Amino acid sequence: MSLFKTKNVWSVYCENDETFDQNSMIVSPLNSDADFIIIGSHHGVLRIFQPMLDINEGILQTGFKASDLILEKLFDNPILQLGVGRLVSGSGLNHLAILQSKLISVYSLVVKEGLADHGIQYVLKLMYAHALKRSAANFTLGHFGGTLNRDFICVQSLDGLLTIFEQESYGFCCFISVFLLPGPLVYLKKTDSFITSGSNWYIQCFKYKNLYDAGHRTPDEEPTSTSTSILSDWDFQMNEPVLEMSVEQLPTKEFVVMVLGEQNLYCLSEAGKLKYMKRFDFSPLCFVSYVLDNNIMTIVISETNTVLIYQNTTLKWSAQLHFLPINVKRANLWNLKGCLVLLSDDGRLECSYLGTEPSLFVAPPLNYQELDFEKAEEELATLNKVIKDLSNDEVKLSSDYVNKQFTINLMIDPELKTGIHEHNLSMALNNQMCQLTIDIMAHNRIEELQLTILVRRPLKCIPATFFKTDVKEKLQFTCDIFLDEELEIPNLNCEVVASFISDSGTPRNVRKTTEIPLGLVVKFSPPEKDNEVKVNLNVNRDLVPLSVLFSDFSSHLHHSISDLMQDNPVEAAGNAAGFANVTECGKTASVLLAKSSQRYRIQSDSLVSLNLMVEQMVYRLGRYFQDDEGFSINFSGSLPISPLISCVHRHFQVRTEVVRLQEQLSVLSSQYRLIEKRLVAKLKAKTPIPLTNLGILLDDTFTEISTTTEKFLKENSELRRVQVELECCLNAVLCLMRLMNVDKKSLSVIESIFQPFVHDIENQYWEDVIECDLQYLLRTFLAKSEKDKLRAECSSFEEVKYISKMDKHLTLVLERISKKIIMETPNTSEERGSPFSIKEEEPPIGLQIGKSSSRILSARARASTISRVPESTHEENEEV
């Protein structure tokens, strides 16, 4: 950090949330005695300032006045770059060139005199304009071809096309070779050359004559990037991206090219030879150079808000800035010569000079004292005790602190939005969406607040994030949740994360969860009696009719009663219902009530489709009996191991195929680049060389790349579908484990391992992580013997190449969990008469957690402990 700070003499801030870049500002006198400051934003707003700094009794009067803004004009398209030169034939005056994406225009600044300052009018008059066929990147002006007293325009497009305009007339256009991304473009008058840089990190110089010989003279011609091969006059390897370039003329009539890289400043001669280089220990943002007494002066702005002035390679001065600019220029105002003009990316424009006001901070003198180790140990013990006490009370303090800052309430509208008039509804697959309303009441001032809404794929939320600053009162945010893909639904949880920074600068975050309406993702379907996967949920209360549990589907259930009245009166009474995905994917999940026992049966032909209804039954039963302290739900069957293993197999196969196609694409791309290099070498040779079927090989490789890419996109889409299905299976198994007789400590470990989140990142796939977790379980509290516990715990991730070993470990873990539950469950004679015995001595959990809809969701993670014994043959064959 610098000791001194710059002195602000004039500043103004642009409105309307405009953005700017390094090409958005120029400083030029145009045809006046003092400089004009001209800026153009990406919103298409052009502003011309001429600050008037008055001197009253020897004191410089600073500050922005309304008369300093002499012109403001709005264009239809963003302004990419500005330039000033003699651009009109027959006129020796300077004119303003404005570059837009598909147009470059030349304007004249016309002054209409008045009786006072506020009576003077400035008008932009359009002289001519050229339409561009390709999207422009930047341009440069100069005396191309050795012309005198007039400037030509060279526009560089995004794909490397250089278009020359000889003032009002079209000149020619051509492509420069080896081009990928556009870089800075400058003109060197002495050698009549263009100097540019690209994504290959080379500085290249092209003669105007070579470009002219290879150019197309007719505007209607469409040149291609491979039609001509233009050799550069000289190249200079940078080995880093180029931020900015400029050309300066020394008093000895010698020209130099100043290049600013990401870590270095280069000075090149007109022949491309390195004169000197300055390496920075910071990241520069922008620079401006000028010549003073045969020395090259360079002003560099760093990312630490510091302006540094170099004479050649020697640092002469540095000062601290008040903000972070992206563009710097020098200007000669009416009463202040050589001031710095700074522009930030959000539109802050400032004129300042180098200040000599030192910082008031003085470093304290170093105190070299011998350490008292006994006293240090006592202090360390005291600090450790304080840290331990704070850690124990961290959760309590954090919750109390958050509650004093603000409260957050979530509300989902149960009525689904339909109709094309609704916003974002065209993106929903089933033409339906629900609206989430978030109410926030700030009790104290909050500096920054960010809300993030998280839903599980295939659900989508728009908008998903909100950001506010200086929050002092009640706020309300609304967003739409809808189905974005034709996939199964892992769960209907919607989590809102509020991250905020209080007025004291303390960061905190709050999480709240709510439930998305079931009707958004499923629809009523006729129930099925025979299915492959069945789950029985036992309750210790009378069965609740499905028409009461699923009141939001009551219209469909009543409609089905009339259809089933003659066939089956039990089902007609609300004892059976079917639910299917609204996108017609997956299988139908049926919910049936037992005739003579307190049991619900949920069945389907797929565990993936069964998942959502199991979770919904637990959630809706807990909500219905939330005031009943003794209510409990129990699952006493066997875990669905086989469907889970099948889904894991499918995920492993698809993921392996995706990895194989990625590697194949990498090999084909390398082969394609090698063929291109061979073709370029043969085409550049002075003597013609036969291509020896390289063209055929190039076409075949391109065809194979296209075919492999299509396969990769298809398999990648299939991988996303299989990931969701695996998440559904894991969520179903985890939900059933919560309803079994598992102690809290073991359940917390199982939940951390069987998390229903499937992520396949590079070099670490889901199978690799779960295999390490399974081995940890088998060597710790699920170990079969003490010998297994003595083995080293698995602590490293290794790639799973064969799925059979993982299948064995997964099966062992699920079987040992079930066996451990059976062994820990008492099996007395009283319990044999009822297969659904309940441990009365354990405190109920439903009432403690089910006081609100958000707390009910947590009840599934702390389900009550219920005894489990094998079901008898009579109960298994019971009619449902």
How would you characterize this protein structure?
- Among the domains are: 394-517, Sandwich (Immunoglobulin-like); 521-636 and 839-876, TATA-Binding Protein (2-Layer Sandwich); 651-826, no CATH class.
- Strand 14 and strand 15 (169-175) form a beta hairpin.
- The strands form eleven sheets. A six-stranded antiparallel sheet has the order 40-42-43-44-41-45. Strands 31, 32, 33, 35 and 37 form a five-stranded antiparallel sheet that branches. A four-stranded antiparallel sheet has the order 1-30-29-28, with no helix packed on it.
- Residues 564-573 and 825-880 have low confidence and may be disordered.
- With 880 residues, it is an alpha+beta fold.
What is this structure, in a nutshell?
With about 900 residues, the protein is of the alpha+beta class. About 25% of the residues lie in helices and about 30% in strands. The radius of gyration is 37 Å and the shape is globular.
Number of helices: 17
β-strand amount: 25-35%
> How would a crystallographer describe the biggest sheet?
6 strands, antiparallel
**End-to-end Cα distance:** 79 Å
Oligomer: single chain
Could you say which structural class the secondary elements and strand pairing correspond to? alpha+beta
Portion of residues in helices? 25-40%
Query: What characteristic shape results from the CA principal axes?
Result: globular
> Uncertain spans, ≥5 residues at pLDDT below 50?
564-573, 825-880
Which whole number gives the mean pLDDT? 81
Beta-strand segment tally? 45
Rg result? 37 Å
